[in-house]
Amino acid sequence: MARRIRFEHGSFEIVWRSFDEWRESVSPQFSISQASSIWLPAVDMCETNEAICITVELAGVHPSDISVEYQNGEFVIRGVRRRKDMGEVKSYYRVEIDYGPFERRIKLPHDIDPDGITAKLEHGLLYINAPKRRSIQAQPTKVQIKEG
Predict the structure, then answer these.
(1) What residues have CB less than 8 Å from 20, skipping those under 6 apart?
(2) Which carries the bigger pLDDT value, residue 33 or residue 85?
């Protein structure tokens, strides 16, 4: 026989708010209370021999509504996903897609060549390719020792 657990609305709300406060203290970007005003698109980041590759899930976001900046070893990706005007809506049966402004800050694990950065939006995915800065393989240099 299955047991049913009953929560009183007030006590559950206290637990939920406490959890949200804890998440806010760990990282403000994960606050549930901010969920209605900002959303975080999913990000993948990998490294090849030549570059750092970032993929950001931005389905439904127009290219003119996206900004990508690189500064001090960090990408800042900002934008907004706008809700399509459906006319006068009588009822919503599900609302699961996040709309509104977003911002992601992505710290890179390596120094990159900012002049070689490319970005492309394709099928709802933003692809950023950031070539790693080529380290100059220094040839051994003989240092002369002076007397005196």
Answers:
(1) 31, 32, 33
(2) 85
113 is in which domain, residue-wise?
39-83+98-134
Closest to 83 measured CA to CA, from 62, 103, 55, 56? 62
Q: Which residues pair with 56 in a beta bridge?
A: 43, 126
Picking from 111, 102, 120, the residue whose alpha carbon sits closest to that of residue 54 is 120
Provide mean pLDDT across the span 100-129.
93
CA distance 120 to 55: 10
Q: At 119, which CATH number?
A: 2.60.40.790
Q: In what order do the strands lie in the sheet with 100-107?
A: 66-71, 74-81, 100-107
The H-or-E segment that residue 11 falls in is helix 9-26
Q: Is the pTM of this model over 0.70?
A: no
State the average pLDDT for the chain.
80
Task: Give the contacts of 18 (CB within 8 A, at least 6 positions apart).
Answer: none
Give the chain's domain count: 2
Higher-confidence residue of 38 and 102: namely 102
